[in-house]
Write a structure and sequence with these properties.
By secondary structure, the protein is of the alpha/beta class. It has ten helices and five strands; from the N terminus they run βαβαβαβαβαααααα. Strand 4, helix 4 and strand 5 form a beta-alpha-beta unit.
Length: 208
C-alpha cells in the first residue's frame, strides 16, 4: 500500500509518516512538500491514499478535484489546520473522502485512515452534528459552500474588490450608491467570515 503525504511543514510530514508506519507498518509512505510535486506522484504512481493539507500554497477545493481527475480510484483524506467548520463539507463535496483537523489526536488520525481506506467518509463529531442538523432542516449538504450564499451582485462586487477597485469606483461602474456597495462588501465579509481583502482573496481561492 502506498500513502502520499502532501504538507509543506517538514516536521508535520515526519509526524504523519510516523503515525502511518506505527499503524500500518507495511505501508510505503511518500512525502511531498508541494502540490505540484504531489500531483506528479499521483500521475506517475499507483497511490492508495493521499493525506493532504489543503492550506498549502496553491491548495484549494480545485486541488482535490484535480487529484480525483488524475486518479479516479484514489482515496483522499484532508488533514488540515484550516477551519473544519468552513472547509470540511466543501472538501468532501469536491471529492475528498474525509476531513480531519490537525488538532485531532493520533488515534483519530488512525480511525480516519481506516475509514477512508474502507471507502467510508470520515467526519469529526462536530461536523457529523452539523450534517445531522442539515438533514433535520432538509438542507442538501453537498451545497454547503459559503460561496453559494453570495448573490450574483455580491459576486460581482467581490470580483471587482479583488481586482483592486475602490468602493467609489465600483459604485460608478455598477451605477449604485457607495453605501449600497459598502453594504454588499459587508455582507460578503459576514457570509465568508473574513475581516480583510487579503483574507477574502485567500478564502475565495481556497473555496473555488
Amino acid at each position: 500500500m502506498k500513502v502520499l503525504v502532501i504538507d509543506d511543514h517538514p516536521l508535520m510530514r515526519s509526524a504523519i509518516k510516523r503515525e502511518i508506519k506505527d499503524h500500518k507498518p507495511q505501508a510505503r509512505v511518500i512525502l511531498c512538500a508541494h502540490k505540484d510535486e504531489g500531483m506528479e506522484a499521483i500521475r506517475n504512481q499507483t497511490i492508495d491514499l493521499v493525506i493532504v493539507e489543503i492550506g498549502i500554497p496553491g491548495g484549494s477545493m480545485h486541488t482535490i478535484r484535480e487529484m480525483r481527475a488524475a486518479a479516479r480510484g484514489i482515496k483522499i483524506l484532508v488533514y488540515s489546520s484550516v477551519n473544519e467548520a468552513i472547509y470540511a463539507l466543501p472538501a468532501v463535496a469536491s471529492g475528498a473522502h474525509g476531513f480531519l483537523s490537525k488538532d485531532s489526536s493520533g488515534d483519530e488520525l488512525r480511525i480516519a485512515i481506516d475509514m477512508v481506506l474502507d471507502s467510508k467518509t470520515y467526519f469529526s463529531k462536530t461536523i457529523q452534528e452539523t450534517l445531522l442538523s442539515q438533514v433535520i432542516a432538509n438542507v442538501d449538504a453537498s451545497n454547503h459552500n459559503p460561496l453559494q450564499t453570495l448573490t450574483p451582485r455580491e459576486r460581482i462586487v467581490v470580483h471587482l474588490l479583488l481586482q483592486g477597485k475602490k468602493i467609489k469606483t465600483i459604485a460608478e461602474m455598477l451605477n449604485l450608491k457607495e453605501s449600497t456597495v459598502s453594504t454588499f462588501k459587508a455582507n460578503v465579509f459576514r457570509k465568508l467570515q473574513v475581516g480583510s481583502l487579503i483574507a477574502l482573496s485567500e478564502k475565495m481561492a481556497m473555496l473555488r
